[in-house]
Design a protein that fits this description.
The complex is a heterodimer of chains A (about 425) and B (about 130).
Chain A: H1 2-15, H2 17-67, H3 77-91, E1 96-102, E2 108-111, H4 125-133, E3 136-140, E4 157-165, E5 171-179, H5 180-269, H6 275-302, H7 312-320, H8 322-325, E6 329-335, H9 342-363, E7 367-375, E8 378-385, H10 400-410, E9 414-419, E10 425-431
Helix pairs in contact in A: 2-3, 2-5, 5-6, 7-9, 9-10
Chain B: H1 2-22, E1 26-30, E2 33-39, E3 45-53, E4 56-64, E5 71-78, E6 81-89, E7 96-103, E8 111-118, E9 124-130
Antiparallel strand pairs in B: 1-2, 2-3, 3-4, 4-7, 5-6, 5-8, 8-9
The chains are: A alpha+beta (about 425), B alpha+beta (about 130).
Chain lengths: ~425, ~130
């Protein structure tokens, strides 16, 4: 029982628009965070590599190339000395970790790591392409390559290379190495700049709209409750009026007609009445009794005489009484409803009244079953007919059951109408 | 034009050889440094010192003529290739000058040669250190 209540509470909590909005907001936040991280990481990578490429081009064109002496490309030690003295401090600036200058044959003619000078390693296709066609390329350094044997272990480098020319006109490959950690730091700087814009804006939006939505939801809830109360009052007023009319008819006209029918029957059976008169009076009395039954059914339809749980079955029997006159077989089954509340019984009767009326008037059914039973803490009603049925997806023209949905919802109940064209109709109600 | 130059070079070479025979350069070691001293074709002395310096080699050359105001044209060769050159004048009470240059430490033996010539009397100093 408590688990059912907990489950109901959880469902109501989940249906709360503010909760739904916050959940959607959280989801969007997560998506934006992931998207921002990916986009900013990509942008930051590009930005960092662009920075490294720009720096390399600047060093190559403005610092290295003008200072390359004659003989450097040929590997003359004096030319190497002069170049080293002239530009070393101007090349190892900022995040530059290593400089190498290569010939097209793969010989290192200069490096700030002088042990590499004179070594020869084959150049890759990208490097040869830059040597032939110019441009600037960047890639992650493979530290297992022998040309990188002097780099400290455990670090990651990015190498950027571009073309320069010696005074003799020989193309040389100028290569600058940057620490990947420096590039990652640069990426974090770019990402840090992105983050407040993307996330802060969204958080502010959620913070601003949540109170507004909360206020709107409260107003809608209040309006809904007012509407339900209004409907209930209208229903109560209508019920009171029907009860007054039914009582007046029952206490006045019905009693008079019953007395008249009884008097006619008594007179017809009186031995003092002649045979001819008795023969004419008997059909009159019979007709009067039939009219009386019809009037009673009408009274039941207007207002049931007893809407307590123990009178529900009789009231439903009265409700389906006109079915016989319409050629419809009706059956009422009521099980174990002794503990049902008066409000639940009244609601069940109202819905049954509307459903039976629809079945008899519109469905063309030959059988109608009204079944009421207690299922756990809920009272259930099923009104089933084998009539023409209809397509529930099409909007219904009548207001009967539709107008009662709000009352049912307000009472914590649920109404389902299941039907298919040609397959009959079942009206199912559950109410606490 | 080539003849006087050839004569000068040949004369200087002969003089250098003779000087070497008369007073061979002294080699000294001080830690990782290597130093050589010797005499020039006249009365001047030279000194060349090579030692490691911050991942490079520092080459220090000194010409000591004991006379102030002499102008010398000097050249520093690294493995026979011109690494640095300049014009200096002797000064101070010792009448000397000193030049310092850094060079890259290449694979194998690095040979540094300091050549200095007095612009007035053509006295020639040639000092070499292998490192």
């Amino acid at each position: 029982m408590s688990s059912a209540v907990d489950s109901g509470g959880a469902v109501r909590f989940a249906k709360n628009p503010v909760v739904q909005f916050l959940a959607a907001g959280l989801l969007v936040l997560v998506v934006v965070v992931i998207g921002t991280v990916q986009l900013s990481s990509r942008a930051a990578d590009e930005e960092a590599l662009n920075d490294a490429q720009s720096t390399t081009e600047l060093l190559a064109r403005s610092v290295a190339q003008p200072a390359i002496p004659r003989g450097l490309a040929a590997g003359n030690p004096g030319a190497v000395d002069r170049f080293d003295r002239t530009v070393l401090r101007r090349l190892l600036v900022g995040e530059v970790r290593r400089i190498k200058i290569w010939t097209a044959q793969g010989r290192i003619v200069y490096s700030d790591e002088t042990r590499l000078i004179g070594d020869r390693f084959p150049l890759g296709p990208e490097e040869l392409d830059v040597l032939r066609n110019g441009g600037t390329e960047a890639e992650i350094s493979d530290l297992s390559e022998p040309e990188n044997r002097f780099e400290p272990a455990g670090q990651s480098l990015v190498e950027v290379y571009t073309r320069v020319k010696s005074p003799e006109g020989e193309p040389l490959l100028f290569e600058a190495y940057y620490s990947a950690t420096d590039i990652a730091r640069r990426r974090e700087q770019v990402y840090d700049a992105f983050q407040p814009i993307a996330l802060g804006g969204l958080l502010v939006l959620v913070a601003v709209t949540t109170p507004l939505l909360w206020a709107l939801t409260r107003r809608l809830d209040r309006t809904g409750r007012d509407r339900a109360r209004l409907l209930e009052r209208a229903a109560d007023a209508s019920e009171s009026e029907r009860r007054r009319i039914a009582r007046d008819l029952h206490d006045g006209v019905v009693q008079d007609l019953a007395g008249t029918a009884f008097a006619l029957s008594a007179t017809a059976r009186d031995p003092g009445t002649d045979t001819e008169t008795a023969r004419r009076l008997e059909p009159m009395a019979s007709s009067l009794r039939a009219s009386l039954r019809s009037l009673r059914s009408l009274l039941v339809e207007i207002y049931p005489p007893d809407l307590r749980a123990d009178g529900l079955e009789a009231a439903l029997e009265d409700l389906v009484a006109p079915a016989a006159a319409a050629g419809v077989t009706a059956r009422v089954e009521v099980y174990d409803v002794a503990h049902a509340s008066a409000d639940a019984v009244r609601l069940v009767w109202r819905v049954a009244q509307e459903a039976v009326r629809n079945a008899l008037r519109h469905s063309g059914a030959s059988h109608v079953t009204v079944q009421v039973q207690q299922a756990g803490d809920r009272l259930t009603l099923d009104v089933t007919d084998d009539g023409a049925g209809f397509d529930p997806r099409k909007p219904a023209s009548g207001l009967g059951l539709r107008s009662q949905r709000d009352l049912i919802a307000e009472a914590g109940g649920r109404l389902d109408v299941r039907s298919t064209p040609g397959g009959g109709t079942t009206v199912h109600l559950e109410v606490r | 034009m080539n003849v006087p130059l050839a004569r000068t070079v040949a004369g200087a070479a002969v003089a250098t050889a003779l000087l070497s025979l008369v007073a061979p350069p002294a080699l000294a070691r001080n830690g990782d440094d290597r130093e050589r001293r010797g005499s020039c074709s006249g009365s001047t002395d030279w000194k060349v010192k090579v030692g490691p310096e911050d991942g490079r080699l520092e080459v220090e050359g000194e010409i000591d003529s004991s006379r102030r105001g002499q102008t010398w044209r000097w050249r520093l060769y690294h493995n026979g290739s011109l690494s640095a050159h300049g014009l200096r004048t002797t000064s101070g009470s010792s009448g000397s000058f000193e030049v310092r240059r850094t060079s890259v430490d290449l694979r194998g033996t690095d040979r540094f040669t300091l050549r200095a010539r007095n612009t007035r009397n053509n006295e020639l100093c040639v000092g070499t250190v292998n490192y």
